[in-house]
Amino acid sequence: MSFNKILKSILPRSLFYRSLLILTVPLILTITISTYIFFDRHWERMAGRLAFGVAAEIEFILRMVEQGIDQDQLDNLSKDSLESLQLNIQYKENTTIQKETTQYFGRGDVIKKFLYKELKKKIDNDFRIVVDVEEKWIQVQIQNQADALIVTLPERRLFSSSGYVFLIWMIGISTILMVVAIIFMRNQIRPIKKLAIAADRFGKGRDVPFYKPEGAREVRQAAKAFMGMRDRMQSQIEQRTFMLAGVSHDLRTPLTRLKLQAEMLPESEDKQSLQQDILDMEKMITAYLEFAKGEGSEDSERVELVEFIQRVMNNFNHTQANIEFVSVEEAIDFYLRPIAFERCLNNIISNAITYADTISISLRKDEDNVFIDIEDNGLGIDPSLYQDVFKPFYREEKSRNLKTGGVGLGLPISRDIILAHGGTIELDQSSKGGLAVKITLPF
Hints:
Blueprint: H1 3-10, H2 15-67, H3 71-84, E1 88-92, H4 106-122, E2 127-132, E3 137-144, E4 147-154, H5 162-203, H6 217-264, H7 269-293, E5 301-304, H8 305-314, E6 322-327, E7 333-336, H9 338-355, E8 358-365, E9 369-376, H10 410-420, E10 424-429, E11 435-442
Parallel strand pairs: 6-8
Antiparallel strand pairs: 1-4, 2-3, 3-4, 5-7, 8-9, 9-11, 10-11
């Protein structure tokens, strides 16, 4: 798998989360790099200097003790150190301490690391460092021959909380900036989502009177372009509908006269041939007009698909075909153009009845789509012709001709109706041996 494919599989799909990722990644990198530089350059250097000062003070006290002082001098030194340096000094005779061998981890061990490093430079005596993180004090135990010098000091002499304060402030400010950015980002993306919903509804044949341009300038431009396209398409559909209504009237009027004149002719083979030609012409004109007219100005309505398909099946009760209907759902509410969609199903079922005696209709759904499969046990179609039969006026020579009532527009009309609903229609081999028409409609 290539790097681009791996990257695409990892990246989020939605514009909001991609924008959030673009904002978050640089911010996290900035915080991480700044924190690393601060702790590596500033905090550790400051901790080292604090440890250097404390180690120098302890070295001074140890040298005075090693030079020899009596108990009064020791008490005065301890008093002065406590008041001036915050160092509490104790001297214990005949006491042996454990040498420092601790590994350095955690906050307390960080303090020990710097203090140990500085003490090691300044004194040769064995020593041990004890850190009480909870009580926040540090004790340095130094071996002086057979005795022990114990120096206790507060943690703040060696540790500064400014690093943690800096980190907390940085995280806090970044969180506030992130929240503000998310709020503004949502407001910017909301118009794009509304435009996508409006385009999807219009593509499925639903009206979108509620939509109005809003958001950033570029989004408003796209919205205005969409609304202009919608108005032009609706105007063209209306003009085409009016024109076809006139064409239908103009063509049917002379056909009606021809039918009346043919009826007045004496019975003969010529009369029957003329009547058959008129009937074929009327049938072809009806098919052509239905194909050209498409869906007209019909509005989408909410229908219950199970009942709708059963009602369409009732149109074929007079036929000898055995039509079965199977639905895994008791009810499916769906928005569609009822007249157009009924015409679509009528075309497909009529086509199946022409070439088969058993038809099976199945209905199911998932989270995103509704699936309608219409299968028959007829002769089927060569798979190489699956795309050709959707072309207007295409007829398979063996069976699809005028004698069977087909003019090659049934499947093209059905396909246009399905596409106008935002769906897809495909042909496949049926499990019954014939043809399977598979319709997918998005919610």
